């Protein structure tokens, strides 16, 4: 009885959230996977669709648009994650060196995070206008004014590296947040350790190389996970910048056209499943690593 | 704890939404008098036109109250996404806007729409609408929508002074002439053809297909015996490729592309006749240009004598909460008075043949004249000839073609699109 009294109130308190998450997150996730394994390629038919196993999952690789959107997603992820990590780290490094008015700079760099991807996209669509030469606007115009015309390019309309341009607004938006993470990481390194290293004959670079950076590993990993899952799910930014055009197609926009334009629920569910799985690939190792670390300590 | 709070808040919001919807659709007798009209007419011109029709509706129906459920967003993308979830939940608005033609097929096949044959008989609409139009929107003997307006898709807009500088005397009559003219403009240093985002290329494709294949062959593409793999289609797609090679840098949308022509940067642009309002209207909503001087138009190359149409229409969903109110609205939308109030403001022409010609000036009078004389063909991009699945597949193929310019692969994709459309 006493034992029950100990765990029952707690359980009652969290059970609404458990139930809601079970139904609306995991239940619907399961339903989505089930739908992806049927041949319900027509939203009109009232029949639920036959079970076809993994046919949709393999079949989609035969579609050129899918290959393209996966490629775009990878390019975007690489540029975005690397860009935000490097820029965020650099900003944090400069802050950590103790500049004047640090609080002011911190706020300024964090501000873009308060903007939604849609608003960012609308502004950057103009900045990254692809017109060049006389009629250039936005950044191309700026390059023209300062005599750097050779830097003008098509931005997100470039067939090969357009998605790298698409990652620029995302880097702009998220690097401040990454800076905050790293700054906390830097501050978390005790001064005693740094001093000890200096006493042992480390130069300033050596202190970072051997003491500070290794201690930033957990922060880096968290940042990687956060950026990675944002990047793989990216939708709003792409839609705000370019709409649903093949040239900037990513899995999420493909899913949108599959569901709302092609009226193909099974295909939409298949793409949704792939998006979830790709995020899982990012997150699960992190969870395992976290759990191991928890056990160790 | 935070999670609990969030989920409880979420639950409250959910139930609040549910409650709200119910009130709208199945409330007491007072609420029943409301007529919910769902459209995507929120822009300048079109919203004014809707208001004019709404005033007529209010005058004729004192027992109903018009409820404007317009959702913003050009060409209705957002509106249709919202609409399809409303219909799936069996909570239809009383009447909704849709492009007349194949775009409504999904709704028709899933039994969401009531046939309007009774209304056509009652109002004798078959006598006042062009026979070809009725043929093209009839599905198995039933008509499911009332067309309010007609837009023309195959219009070639051009800048007369740019043409003059390039040594071109008039608008090109055929696709081959068009290509020769594009080359001349290119030599003069201007952008030969301005284009916008991906959908404007689908729009361009439909004009090139029509101009290259001819009206009958084009219309046959959308029948059960269609053959997309023949050599004529290949030739048309080669033309499309050649024409695209003269295109300037893609602009954000159709307006900046049209503006390039108005500003004298580009010579030609193929866009629907909503571009006229943009060229002609005073600077708040348009560019304030003078027609025939700053800009001019002609049928797109090779399509003279054919009117490639698209039309906004209203429907009667099954289970409409206020069916009588919806029918009252459809009667206004079908009436001469309603169409003549709406169309001059929207910048389109009425679907009815008995419109008051004096209301339609400049471009619109030309368009009205052509509408009564021309053969008809339906637009791809704007939902007339191909259902959503087919249109999306064509759009995808065009988007991929824009990148690799591979005609053979493009044609294969179009053949597959026709086969898999389920139309």
TrEMBL record, chain A:
CDD domains membership: TM_PBP2 (cd06261)
Domain of life: Bacteria
Keyword hit for Nucleotide-binding: no
Keywords: Cell membrane, Membrane, Transmembrane, Transmembrane helix, Transport
Gene3D superfamilies for this protein: MetI-like
InterPro entries found in the cross-reference section: MetI-like (IPR000515), MetI-like_sf (IPR035906), UgpAE/MalFG_permease (IPR050809)
The family this protein is said to belong to: Belongs to the binding-protein-dependent transport system permease family.
Protein name: Sugar ABC transporter permease
